[in-house]
Design brief:
Strand content: under 5%
Helix content: over 70%
Number of helices: 9
Shape: globular
Oligomer: single chain
Length: 269
């Protein structure tokens, strides 16, 4: 027999606070290692990615007829820029791993017959996250051109490379995460944790949370990007509410059919 201790739970399958913390540390460690390994492999993609991210700034000089450049203001900023790009690659490439670890941490709080949703979450969540990042990648040059276009004609656009990259990374990852959050709500609804009605009633709090999220994902003074990012997230939230409401009606009809079949009284009687 193995001497490795097993995780003890009460008959209802609940874990203690200490066990939750141990489980959280385990999941974070696995996700962190996967991201680091993928980031190391992303070293060879740094140059083409930086060239693509820099292209909108270089295009400003041609289209707007003024000076535009990305600058490094500290000795180590160029190296830091490469590290940030590597970790961006790591987060995107390792998304199937850390998304699974996220759901695997939630699973112990659910019943055994609900663990099958982890497969669906991974199968849909990773493509959604990557699709969101890809969508942000193609939208990003237009955002840069639009925002820098407000500068006066006799000015120069001299951007700090680190600040510019921080904006790009936050923008790309925020949209990627935003694509996944509605799926998480839908799966929690399928697991009977939250109802579509409750999700819809909380729309004001949801919009407040989305506004806070987009404010953190974009520069403090960049209200336009915040709005452009918030609009699709609000749309995705209400789409998740619609899917959850449809599922609630489907489940209610199924339960009503079973009640009629076995002659059970309705809970409202």
């Amino acid at each position: 027999m193995s001497d490795r201790p097993t995780r003890s739970r009460n008959p209802e399958g609940r874990m203690t606070l200490g066990q939750h913390l141990v489980e959280l540390r385990k999941r974070i460690t696995i996700a962190g290692v996967a991201i680091i390994v993928a980031a190391i492999g992303g070293w060879w993609l740094v140059d083409p990615i930086w060239a693509a991210l820099s292209e909108p700034v270089l295009r400003i000089a041609e289209e707007q007829d003024r000076d535009a450049a990305l600058t490094y203001v500290t000795v180590g900023e160029a190296f830091d820029t490469r590290l940030i790009i590597m970790f961006l690659v790591g987060i995107v490439a390792a998304s199937p791993v850390w998304l699974y670890q996220l759901w695997a941490f939630i699973v112990p709080a659910l019943h055994k017959n609900e663990k099958r949703y982890a497969i669906g979450f991974l199968a849909v969540g990773a493509p959604l996250f990557i699709s969101g990042c890809v969508a942000a990648w193609f939208v990003f040059p237009n955002i840069v051109t639009l925002l820098t276009g407000f500068a006066f004609s006799d000015s120069a656009t001299l951007l700090t490379a680190r600040v510019y990259l921080d904006f790009a990374v936050k923008f790309i990852l925020a949209i990627g995460v935003g694509f996944v959050l509605p799926l998480l709500l839908v799966l929690l609804n399928f697991a009977r944790v939250v109802s579509g009605e409750a999700m819809l009633k909380a729309w004001r709090w949801a919009i407040l949370a989305i506004a806070t999220f987009t404010a953190l994902a974009t520069p403090a003074a960049d209200v336009l990007s915040m709005v452009l990012l918030a609009i699709p997230l609000v749309g995705l939230y209400f789409a998740a509410c619609a899917v959850a409401a449809f599922n609630d009606r489907r489940v209610a009809r199924k339960e009503a059919t079973l009640a009629d079949e076995y002659g059970l009284a309705s809970s409202d009687d």
